[in-house]
Amino acid sequence: MPSPERLKELYALMWRIRLFEEAANAAFDSEPAFSVLHMCCGQEAVEVGVCAALRPDDLVFGNHRSHGHLLAKGGDLNTTMAELFGRATGCCGGKGGSMHVVDATVGFMGANGIVSAGLPIATGAALAQAMTRSGRVVVVFFGDGATHRGAFHEALTLGSLWQLPVVYLCENNGYQQWVPQKEVAPVSEVARMGAAYAIPGVTVDGQDLEAVMAAAAAAVARARTGGGPTLLECRTYRFYGHSYGDTQGYRTAEEVARWRERDPLTLLARSLRERQAMSEGEDTGIQAAAARAVADAVAFAKASPYPSPEVLDRDVFDPAWRLGA
Ligand SMILES: Cc1ncc(C[n+]2csc(CCOP(=O)(O)OP(=O)(O)O)c2C)c(N)n1
Ligand SMILES: [Mg+2]
After folding, report:
1. From the CB of 146, is ligand 1 less than 6 Å away?
2. pLDDT of 324
3. Alpha helices (H) along 185-227
4. CB 226 within 8 A of CB 163
5. CA 166 / ligand 2 centre spacing (Å)
6. By alpha-carbon position, which residue is closest to atom 22 of ligand 1?
7. Any idea which architecture 4-322 has in CATH?
């Protein structure tokens, strides 16, 4: 069981992610370089709980909603925010933007704008870990919508067949853009799909940090010790629209309010308070520190220059490089 000190660290990280997203959303109107924004508010316990079960050298792959994945894996608030603002100090030099954040220095191997595209890439990375006996585990985050694409099937087939050190991590938030999962999915429990690939499927309450940590730790241990993949489904909810500007006509305010009662931050705070592991003053201090760090990140981003035209063709695929020319 994680110590209260460890849980408070993770609580602070969840607050940094929450406020990071809200600050990015607030900046969107005035910042010309913002392309698109998918916020993960409501899903923080999944991101933080899973990454807390990993070693720093383990590898994580994301999807289009990945700021939280990067920050939970150890990403820097300043360089992540600067990337969203399209600035040269961003983790991709300002040329990736929100849907392509990546920071290999902390093992976050990339967001991906194509739904389910991270799954086969992560499976390939897991094959590389197995072949080199690196001892690293790979986690790939994807949404419930990604399970409807062929890449999901291909990845889980090979991951299982080759018993790769990978965790397939589904953040099931019940929506796929504006479409409720129940309208398009004959099976709403994603974990049940594991049986089709002969891998364990586990469902966990994605609003409960400790439950996520325990389930992720088991899946990671299994992967690391040669037991092969797990399909881990975290039931969760996004508090904001699919992306910036979404008017959310497809769901009711009552539904959102019901899920807000299960805010992962509130649940963790309550649990820490009940155990007398966090005072009201400490809680206030944690939130204030997160707010300061996020404000600093916005100031850092705004003060940074845009990339210069000279770097336009750098960091892009170059066939001459491939041929060794
Ligand atoms: C191949 C592909 N089809 C459609 C889209 C447009 N699109 C972006 S996100 C999304 C829904 C994804 O739903 P889910 O996987 O459940 O993730 P969530 O947004 O709920 O986190 C769609 C359809 C896309 N990016 N890629
Ligand atoms: Mg979804």
Report:
1. yes
2. 58
3. 209-224
4. yes
5. 21
6. 177
7. 3-Layer(aba) Sandwich (3.40)
Residue nearest to atom 5 of ligand 1 (CA): 115
Greatest Cα pair distance, the chain, in angstroms, is: 64
N- to C-terminal Cα separation, the chain: 54
Q: Is 129 in the pocket of ligand 1 (CB under 6 A)?
A: no
Reduce the DSSP state of residue 100 to 3 states and report it: helix
- For 309, the token pair is 């035209």
Q: Which residue has the tokens 């300043």?
A: 78
Does residue 86's CB lie within 6 angstroms of at least one atom of ligand 1?
no
Looking at the CA of residue 173, tell me the nearest atom of ligand 1: 20
- The pair of structure tokens assigned to 315 is 């960091």
What distance lies between CA 73 and its chain's CA centroid?
A: 9
Q: How confident is the model at residue 263 (pLDDT cuts 50, 70, 90)?
A: very high
**Chain centroid to CA 212: how far?**
13
- Dig out the tokens for 196 from the structure: 């089709």
pLDDT at 313: 84
19-41 pLDDT tens trace = 999 999 999 988 887 879 999 99
What 3-state class would DSSP assign to 95? coil
Distance CA(67)–CA(65), nearest Å, equals 6
